[in-house]
Amino acid sequence: MTERFIECGAQLFLLLALAPLVTGAIRTLKARLQTRRGPGIIQPYKDIFKLFRKGMVIPETASWIFAATPWVVFFSTILAGLMIPMVAADAPLGLFGGALAVIYLLGLGRFFLALSGLDTGGSFGGLGSSREMTISALAEPAMMLAIFTVAIGAGSTGLTEIAGAAIGQTWRFLAPAQMFAFAALALVLIAETGRIPVDNPATHLELTMIHEAMILEYSGPYLALVEWAASIKQLVLMTLLINCFWPVGLQPTWFGFGALIGIGWLLAKLLLLSCAIVLLETVNAKMRLFRVPELLAVAFTLGSLALVSTFLF
Amino acid sequence: MISELFLSGIIAWFAGAMASLALWRKPVAARRVACTAALAGSLFDLSASAFAVFSGSPTVIRLPFGNPVFTWTIGIDPLSAYFNVTLAVLAAAVSLYSFGYLREMEGRRNLGSFGFFFNLLLTSLALVFTASNVFFFLVAWEAMALSAFCLVSFEHEKEEARNAGVLFLVMSHAGTGLLLIAFLVLASVSGSLDFASFHLLASTMPPLRQGAVFLLFLFGFGVKAGLVPFHIWLPEAHPVAPSNVSALMSGIVIKTGIYGMARVFFDFYGPPPLWMGTVVLALGVVSALLGVLYALMEHDLKRLLAWHSIENIGIILMGFGAALMFRALGQPNLAALALIAALYHTFNHAVFKGLLFLGAGSVVQTTHTRNMEKMGGLIRLMPVTAICFLVGAVAISGLPPLNGFVSEWLTYQALLAGFGTTQSLTRLMFPIAGSLLALTAALAAACFVKAFAIPFLALPRSEQAERAKEARPTMRAGMAALAVGCVALGLGATWLVRAFDPITQQTLGVSASSSMATARGLTLSPGTAHGGTVSTVGMASLLLLAGASIALPLAWRWQRRSVKGPAWDCGLPGLTADNEYTATAFSKPLRMIFSALYRPRREIQAEYEVSPYYPSAIRFESEIEPTFEKHLYKPLRQRIMAAAERMRAIQAGSINAYLAYIFITLLLLLLFGVRG
User: Fold this and answer.
1) Quick one: B48 and B127 in the same domain?
2) Domain span including residue B138
3) Which of B380, B534, B546 is the closest to A97 by Cβ?
């Protein structure tokens, strides 16, 4: 029991501390690839710190939903984050839910974020909410197929079992089913975390933004919470992707020297995935909104192929 | 004990029906009597059926009339009791709500007849779930359909209500016709009309007949349940009824179809051939997806909810389909899991859809419109209604930790486990169904963002919305009771799965709860070898703990250094309701993406005087094509009307001709009798 608490505490710290770093790393890498200097890797920490010390402006038209949303989003994302294996194969809160619970907890956060977008009465919020809910709904079947594929391999939707089943089979990710499912989930990751070509996290142009439009009215500490939660969500989905398909370096437990190795592997794998995302963002332009369904249809097809591959190969 | 309580409930309802009819000249008294009787009957029924769910042996009550063939036998086995609990919980909350809701109608409408049909509907529902003789069942079934018809067309001065009522009645009777044939085939095999004699009987019939009877039952009960493509009456009839009736219609009346299917598929049939399960699963997927896709396009709040009933019936049938397939594949434990998922969702849907319809009723009563585009900002004027509606919206979207999540999670687990049960390609159906369930659930979430945000958030979009008033105390109590139900059914999942043991024991011969409630009842598991676990209690307590210890103190501190300011209005002079996103705009991306299905038509007429950039008036019209009505029912209706036209020749109106018809019919029947 006490060990569980320590594990939860450690993973909580890792989630909170690492998430802005990943965001910062992606931004810096992207800047370098585009031969810009970029804002520096720790800028997201500075932003969050700065925002927490500011006052905030709350729209006159907003109700209590607006004030409750940052908390719901923040806590549900963290709760989802505690259910995934990060350093040890045994997820600290694996007992409370597996892959499905993670997806649905993120869905809870999104639901409230979309409500708050509409709560302010401005057009931008509604625009963002509408697009966000549309894209996430279309991403869902592909995501579920990919999750099903790995869950069928492990015989469980528990992420501890999924990661556990892959341990010791270092090259399993080369199996066709795994590759297809990985590709499907990677496309979903791009859509869900609002990256190019689906959404542009750096934009503030009304015609192109999705997530930024929803949270347009947030300021000060609430904005900090929402932004922090967004980067935690990104970390959670990235970790889910790398640890489900390529669990190399996952430790049996959180305790002992092994944990440091585990964290090292995690950082290395995150860096690799970040590089891939940066490359993808740099060589692609943002898609028109109504081209996004095609991308997600590709993801769905890949997911179906993954499923068929589980018994063909 | 159980039988006394149950009969007391029936008597209370029936007496309430008669008393309110007698009091039709005194609206206040009629309202009070009708609602009190409905509430009392529900509480009796709840206590009776709650006992009966857990008592393994069925209770049989033989009413002291009838003849040996047409017996009036009431049988309360665990399956009947379970549906009765669902009925009683919903009916109690709706009755409480009706105390306040009906006050608006006092003096304007005949509350005596309303109370009569309302209580009659409850009586017949309880009897539909318990009647264990074909004749008795069909009598209760018809009483239910007729009282529901009278309640749907209660506001009969509106043409819309009359048309919806007639459509409901016609569809309902078409379904009953199919049921009648199916029951008669079964009765001809068993030689009795008692349900007890049908147990496992259907499976002894030759395959072709077995299949035909199965389809007759599926379609017959499917009409009542609102299964696609027999759903067309549902989005017409549910919205036009008074909202407390809508809650009952969507919450429990359509569940009689589900009950009938459960009774037939798991009691009358033994392990069925595989194709039956696949048909049910496929129809479930289609219903779920089409239901939610059409719901997204609605901006009539109550029609939107009605479409979601079709979606949820689809989800329930996915569980049923999987259970049938597992039964065919010889996996009783998995069949139990899938059946539990379906029945759990049945109860959940009754609670959250009832809640949502009651919430919509409160809103519609005060704003006098069902059009969401004319609402807005109601969260300030109706805080309790808003929070109850929000609970229902989160629950129906399947988000943790509320009840919708639990039953959808169980459905996913059942579908996931299905993949390993067979080597044939059929197994691909399970994960595909699972992924489409994911799509359905995500679209439902999108739809309920709209259904909550447009009426309740931002600025009021019309004068009625500005003048809205909070619902009356009893209405709030009724909604709050169901909201608590959503939370309890979500958090108490591990405890509640025990209630399914007698049902699965009765239908499949296995008990699942001991393997489903793990970690001392903290976590829920599908009971399969590895399975995942989930703990709604754990999630809820962690979220609450974090909220209370971190969020509240910090929010309080931050709130002090916050200022109120206008939302960004793009530099225009002030934000008005015209700037707000509308329900139509919200669903626009999906309308474009699924345009192959919707075939949207839109028309814009602009009038301008000086330049086309400054229109003085714009008229915008948009509609989507009602595919089923246009391509399936319209041709069908035309054929029927044409046939009726030709039949007119024999309807000469002369008594002699009719006497001749009667004579010829009698003669034919006699000949038939002599031959047979």
Assistant:
1) yes
2) 1-152+175-225+246-270
3) B534
